Amino acid sequence: YTDKMKEMSMLSLLCSCFYSQPHPNSLYQYGDLQVKGLNKRASGQSFEVILKDPGQSGDKAQPQPLRISPRKEVSLEELHKRLEAAEERRKSQEALVLKQLAEKREHVQEVLHKLHKENNNFSKKTEEKLIQKMEVNKENREAHLSALKQRLREKEVHAAEVRRNKERQTDLSG
């Protein structure tokens, strides 16, 4: 088809060189293709491409009807064998599906077990961190309180010393 289109475009190029306007009823035949030139515009020339039906081609051969081979008689024994084979296939398919479901269930249980284990580990680690943080806070608070008590004692000692000095001065002056 593409080769025919290439040939057609070459032919139309040659024709357009000789004839500026295509003949209104010009019809070209390429095997099973018919090409009809429509009109020439400033943007280019347009064509109508008509494909023939396969029935319209030169060969008038009639399609051959399908031949159906006659069915042979199937014995009762053969039918039982087929039914047993079908039953075996069904059972094996069912067993395969059950096996896949069991594997899937086992995988889900493993994933849930792993998730539960990781969750417990995370909880334990978080609890340990929290306890450690609380102990550090308690130690810091106790250290801060003891420092405050120490400064208060030092201020009391200093205040007592200042009072003694003041009493001495008043005793000496008076």
Automatic annotation (TrEMBL):
Molecular-function GO terms, alphabetical: tubulin binding
Cleaved signal peptide residues: none
Basic and acidic residues: bias regions: 151-174
GO BP term, example: regulation of microtubule polymerization or depolymerization
GO cellular component: cytoplasm; neuron projection
InterPro entries membership: Stathmin_fam (IPR000956), Stathmin_sf (IPR036002)
Annotated region (Disordered), positions in chain: 149-174
Pfam families (alphabetical): Stathmin
Family that this chain belongs to: Belongs to the stathmin family.
The protein's name in its UniProt record: Stathmin
Organism placement in taxonomy: Eukaryota, Metazoa, Chordata, Craniata, Vertebrata
